[in-house]
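User: I'm putting together a teaching handout on how sequence relates to shape, and I'd like one worked example. Could you take DUF4399 domain-containing protein from Candidatus Rhodoblastus alkanivorans, show the sequence you're using, and then write out its predicted structure as tokens right after it?

Assistant: Happy to. First the sequence, then the structure tokens directly below it.
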Amino acid sequence: MRKILASVFAAALFGLSPGILGAASAESHWPASARVYFIEPANGAVVNGKVAVKFGLSGMGVAPAGVDKPNTAHHHLLIDMGAPTGAALNQPLPSNAHIKHFGGGQTETVLDLPPGKHSLQLIMGDAFHIPHDPPLESEKIEIEVK
């Protein structure tokens, strides 16, 4: 009887250990068909003044921050920076000059960027602004503001 109980305990312990230890799951949080992209501006666009930015999303829905509903997320816009990697993918994205949150479920914005070249990239965050690993992110585009 002891051997049986020890075997059951060991199996339960090893089966639960990744969660206990906080290891990230290799399974994606997002549907396999999900895709995020820019509707506008186009990569390489040259714009005068303010920049109208429209976000596209397919394969899942948009929900405001705080709404924890399967297959939904909200947009975050990365400006002049690379996408987060590693452990940062399991933490809420900060809100600052380089990371704009659209936690109201918005799908467009107008940016007032200084003249020069800029990079833009979209990354989706769940109800708690966490992108997950692997992230759902757009291609990075480059624009120039005159």
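A couple of points you could highlight for students: Residues 26-145 form a domain with the Immunoglobulin-like fold (CATH 2.60.40.10). The radius of gyration is 20 Å.
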